Amino acid sequence: MDFSIDLAIRVLVAGLAGGLIGYERELRGKVAGIRTHFLVAMGSALFMIISQFGFPGAIKFDAARVAAGVVGGLGFLGGGIIMKNRHVSGLTTAAGIWVTGAIGLSIGAGMYEVSGLCTLLLLLCMEVLHHLNILIGERQVNTTLSAASQQDLLNALQQLGKHVGNFSLFKQGEVYKAEVSMLIKKKDYPNGILQKLKSLPGITMESLD
Description:
By secondary structure, this protein is of the alpha+beta class. It is built from seven helices and four strands, in the order αααααβαββαβ. Helix content is 60%, strand content 17%. The protein has a four-stranded antiparallel β-sheet with strand order 2-3-1-4. Helix 1 runs antiparallel to helix 4, helix 2 packs antiparallel against helix 3 and helix 4 runs antiparallel to helix 5.
């Protein structure tokens, strides 16, 4: 096979692998989808090709430096995803981009077998563990409840039982309020917890996040 064709195939395969991973993220409604993962994988593969073959006349050159630079750049990109809107979120997507970059680097180095295995494992992790996490995982939920009396709030907290992590009670005008932090099963969010809160006698749910 012609050498330039081989390099073109590496870039193309890397882009397709990244696009496949990005498609899974797109289905989850994530900000970083097909285009982002496609570009990350393709760019990583190209950087690896440049590091290996782009400096034929160099007397002394460490090809690993380019790969290390790509890893640092992906960390910066992932940090931007995590800290979007000043809230910590998108950790899984950031980690996926990091691994996508590694896959691109390995494809750029011509390591097709291990790259294919990592792509498959990444997709399995995203899909299988996503559903498993929903079934058995928990999440923290914050809600504000109000009632005409403090006793109604205390009774409601007692009914919520082990779900309540911590809470604070205060009075606002003629209304008593409670800011409650709860730990619930992910499969119960939001419908299950909404029904639970709405069924509490004498309680009005003002917010839930």
